[in-house]
Amino acid sequence: MAELYRLLLVEDNPGDAELARDWIAGILDMKIDVENVVTLRNAITALSDGAFDGIILDLNLPDSTGAATLDNLVPACPNTPIVIFAGSNTALDLTALNHGAGVLEIVAKDDNPDVLLTQSVRSMLKHASAERHHDQFRSLVTVMPDAVVVTNRAGVVQFLNPAAKSLLGKSEDDFLGEIINFAVASDRPSDLDILRTGGRRSVELRVAECTWDYRPALLATMRDVTEERQLSERLRQTQKMEALGLLAGGVAHDINNLLLVVMLYADMIRSAEAPALFANEAGEIVDAVERAQALTRQLLTFSRRQPIERKVISIADIVVGIHSMLRRLMPVEIEITSLIDDDVWSTIGDTNQIEQVLMNLAVNARDAMPDGGRFTIGLENRTLAETTDGASPGDYLCLTVTDEGSGIADADRERIFEPFFTTKPRGQGTGLGLATSYAIVAQMGGHILLDTTVGAGTTFTILLPRAEKATGAETDTAMPANRLGGHETVLVVDDDQAVARAARHILEVNGYAVHAAANGAEAQNLLDKGELSVDLVLSDVVMPLVGGPELGRYVIERFPDLPVVFMTGYSDHPITRQDGESTIEGCPVLLKPFRPQALLSLVRSVLDDRGAQGRA
């Protein structure tokens, strides 16, 4: 659609006004609306009522003549171009009018006025169109969310929009007239870091040539991508941690199976009627295995495959209760301070794991302050109105752990939560403390943030979701040792033959008859033949061909009176519930690694329940 232009024709001669209208109407490529007034007073009124793109002015009017007409009109339209339509009795020089910025042309009425007037009007409206587009462009740039800086070709700053002032942290007066050398880049943006009060901001910079105030210029747009880069980095870190978690969990599971075999046999030797020397050595084996299992538990926690007891817990009580343990951990040169707000909220999690997080952070703080300092644990309620550092809006319990130590170097910050990464000398750290803490907090639905300055100290901020309601917890009742044995027949199903042999040996030593199968398919085949009289199926969960869940459903359907017990090292497997049962009703889960008494107690309990149901 063609632009509509408005012209104000100030002409008191009806004939001249009609001719001017006709000539302007002949400009066919422009849509022009002409309003005619006959006095200076009417012209000023018309200008106050609406905007015009140009003025055609006769200086000799009923209420004003000559240069005085122009002098009185210009204040009412300081930025509107004017073409003077002068009669033969008006002798004027454009430069003598002293209004060169507003007056574009003087057209004499007796010197080819049709051609000259149409040329002048066309030129005037092109000027008006450029001015209009410039104003629109300036308005658009002003409201853009991206920062915009305009310089002339020499790099002198001509304009900053509000977003640029906010991004750069300075006013327009601080920059106008300053020189900034922007290079005209290709279609791809350039990366730029801006240092300002409040920290570093990352921006994408694009520079293009433009016209500003009718002169060649450079327009630089800067998009603040700080949060976007941080989110991208968090996503990259999360994906890396998940990949490492899968690796760590798989390795820990395989090691746990090996440790389980060693543990089971060592326990049997220690409990058997063996020489004291053997019993003592078996005890040493058990202690070593338990230390190794502590490491695998950390790996499983990092990979979120370690079972946790989910219940409403008071972090405030945990912080108070752990104080004496921290005092024994820290040298006397380190002052321990707790800052706990009144009426802090509770959260849902595992008390032991929260204690583990605090101890891990305390060990790091101790090692960072070899000459002493202050170690502070803070606890307060915090409500987030918007997403902050990856944490969604909502109520959180905010736990902070601060030291005055050496801080963490920038090169190490990105890797600080990776498993096996440590800045400590060889032999002085496993590299699992912070990785485990990260995993525990994530498993609770929380977030752990790092703020550190080299030479000034480190603060870990942990945001844990506020607990909505209490959850119950199951308690185990130990079975007397003299009731752990039996005479029933158990089918042990596990693809790890060492685990199967160890479990079989424990059961047989305690009076059970045992058969074994290497996977679910082999177990199904043995049961279908009907040659075995089986009282209980003890099955691993993850196996080739036919896994434990599929075997369990098969047994329930074909042999409804035959109980099934699962054993697994994966607490996050879909079949495993937090209460120690499986998602297959009536089939409990025994989590690896387990002690012989735990295996015997569960088997005996399930068989006794089956017998009670049969008698009922």
TrEMBL record:
GO MF annotations, alphabetized: phosphorelay sensor kinase activity
Protein name per the record: histidine kinase
Enzyme class: transferase
Domain PAS span(s) in chain numbering: 133-178
Superkingdom per UniProt: Bacteria
Keyword line: Phosphoprotein
Residues bearing PTM 4-aspartylphosphate: 58, 540
Matching SMART domains: HATPase_c (SM00387), HisKA (SM00388), PAS (SM00091), REC (SM00448)
Domain Histidine kinase span(s) in chain numbering: 250-468
CDD domains, per the entry: HisKA (cd00082), PAS (cd00130)
Pfam families on file: HATPase_c, HisKA, PAS_8, Response_reg
UniProt-listed NCBIfam families: sensory_box (TIGR00229)
SUPFAM superfamilies: ATPase domain of HSP90 chaperone/DNA topoisomerase II/histidine kinase, CheY-like, Homodimeric domain of signal transducing histidine kinase, PYP-like sensor domain (PAS domain)
Response regulatory domain residues: 6-124, 489-607
Catalytic reaction annotation: ATP + protein L-histidine = ADP + protein N-phospho-L-histidine
EC number from the UniProt entry: 2.7.13.3
